[in-house]
C-alpha cells in the first residue's frame, strides 16, 4: 500500500502562494475567534504562523468565548467591508446559540477564503467560481497531486457536513466522479463504502472505517482528526487493518491537514488579486 503524505504538496502550495503574495499588495487574512477551545486556538495560531511564512498578514480577532452572535456577525461584516482585509475566516466552535451558517452569511463571498458563506456552497454546487472550504479543496488537491483518476469512477464520501462532506461531493461531481454520500443514518455503511474506488472519510470518529469498509486497491483519504489520550491525533480510518486492503491511504497527522492550511493561504492570496 502507498502512503500519501500531504507535506510535500503543502510546501509546494506555500511556495507558489508566497510568490503570488509578493507579486501585489500584501494580502491580509482576518480570523475571527470566539472560543476557549484549546485545539481551535492552536489551529488559528498555526494559521497565523504559516501566513507569516508566506508573506501574508494575519489578524486574529479574538472576541472571547462569551461573544454574542450579533457581535460576531457585525465583526464579520466590518472585516468584509474593510478594503485592507482580503480574506475573512470564522473559526468554530462558536458560543452556544450562535449558528455558524447564519453568521457566515455576513462574510463577503469574494473574501470567503474558507468557503463558509452558504452562497459559496451554492455557487460551488452550480459550477460557478467560489472558494471551496479549504479542507474540501485539500482533498481534491491531494487526489490531483497523486494523479488519482476521478472521471467515471465510484467515489464515496462518508460525512455530509457543510464544511467538508457536501462541498467535497460537489467538487468530485464536478470532476465527473460517480458520487455517493454516506452519513450517520446510512444503513450498513460498509456495504456502501466498500463499493468505492475513491473513499473519503470525514466523520470525526476514530477508527470508524475498518478493513471491511474498504475495497481492495481503493484510494482512501482520511479527513478525520480525532484527539488521542496521549495528546496526539488519529483519523477516521483504522490505518493498521486498512493498510492491508487499500491501494493508497493518507496519514493522520500529515495528510489532509497541512494541505488545508496551505490552501487557505492560497485562497487569501487569490482573493487579494481578484479584479
Ligand atoms: P461534523 O461533525 O460536522 O460532521 C460529521 C458527519 O459525519 C455528519 O455529516 C454525520 O452525518 C456523519 N457521521 C456521523 N456518524 C457517522 C457514521 N457512523 N457513519 C457515517 N457517517 C457518520 O464534522 P466535520 O466538521 O465535517 O469534520 C469531520 C472530521 O474531519 C472531524 O474529525 C474533523 O476534526 C475533521 N476535520 C479535519 C480538517 C482538516 O483539515 N484535516 C478540517 C475540518 C474537519
Automatic annotation (TrEMBL):
InterPro entries: Aminoacid_DH-like_N_sf, NAD(P)-bd_dom_sf, THF_DH/CycHdrlase, THF_DH/CycHdrlase_cat_dom, THF_DH/CycHdrlase_NAD-bd_dom. Keywords: Amino-acid biosynthesis, Histidine biosynthesis, Hydrolase, Methionine biosynthesis, Multifunctional enzyme, NADP, One-carbon metabolism, Oxidoreductase, Purine biosynthesis. It catalyses: (6R)-5,10-methylene-5,6,7,8-tetrahydrofolate + NADP(+) = (6R)-5,10-methenyltetrahydrofolate + NADPH; (6R)-5,10-methenyltetrahydrofolate + H2O = (6R)-10-formyltetrahydrofolate + H(+). It comes from the Bacteria. The lineage of its organism: Bacteria, Bacillati, Actinomycetota, Actinomycetes, Streptosporangiales. CDD domains: NAD_bind_m-THF_DH_Cyclohyd. Pathway: One-carbon metabolism; tetrahydrofolate interconversion. Belongs to the tetrahydrofolate dehydrogenase/cyclohydrolase family. NADP(+) binds at residues 159-161, 225. GO terms for biological process: L-histidine biosynthetic process; methionine biosynthetic process; purine nucleotide biosynthetic process; tetrahydrofolate interconversion. Residues 5-114 form the Tetrahydrofolate dehydrogenase/cyclohydrolase catalytic domain. Catalyzes the oxidation of 5,10-methylenetetrahydrofolate to 5,10-methenyltetrahydrofolate and then the hydrolysis of 5,10-methenyltetrahydrofolate to 10-formyltetrahydrofolate. The keyword Phosphoprotein does not apply. GO terms for molecular function: methenyltetrahydrofolate cyclohydrolase activity; methylenetetrahydrofolate dehydrogenase (NADP+) activity. The keyword tRNA processing does not apply. Residues 133-272 form the Tetrahydrofolate dehydrogenase/cyclohydrolase NAD(P)-binding domain. GO terms for cellular component: cytosol. HAMAP family: THF_DHG_CYH. Its EC number is 1.5.1.5, 3.5.4.9. This is Bifunctional protein FolD. Homodimer.
